[in-house]
Amino acid sequence: MSLAEKPVASPCVSICALDERDICTGCQRTVDEITRWGRMDNAERRAVLILCHERARDSGLLWLTGSAGGS
Fold first, then answer.
1. Residue 3 lies in a domain
2. Distance between CA atoms of residues 52 and 47, nearest Å
3. Alpha-carbon distance 56 to 29, whole Å?
4. b/e string for 14-32 if b means 16 or more Cβ within 10 A?
5. pLDDT digit string, tens, across residues 48-58
6. Cα 21–61–48 angle (5° rounding)?
């Protein structure tokens, strides 16, 4: 991480509970991703955020992706 680059913010939304797959129902991170977040560089954090988005989409928690369509 360069000195000028700010750290990628945590996706934590303070709804901390693990599902049956040990994935947080609030932020969609695994236990390992949560515990390692503070030691990750920005590239690793961005990769985790992509995984979180995919998990949310796949579990039905995220239903508005891409354009809204229509016109």
1. no
2. 9
3. 10
4. eeeeeeeeebbeebbbbee
5. 999 999 999 99
6. 60
DSSP state of 56: H
**26 DSSP assignment:** T
Retrieve residue 55's tokens.
Answer: 């998990």
Per the structure, how many domains does the chain have?
Answer: 1
**Domain limits at 43?**
12-61
User: Is the dihedral angle over the CA atoms 52, 11, 7, 36 positive or is it negative?
Assistant: negative
Phi, psi of 43 (to 5 degrees): -65, -45
The 10s digit of each residue's pLDDT in 6-33 is 999 999 999 999 999 999 999 999 999 9
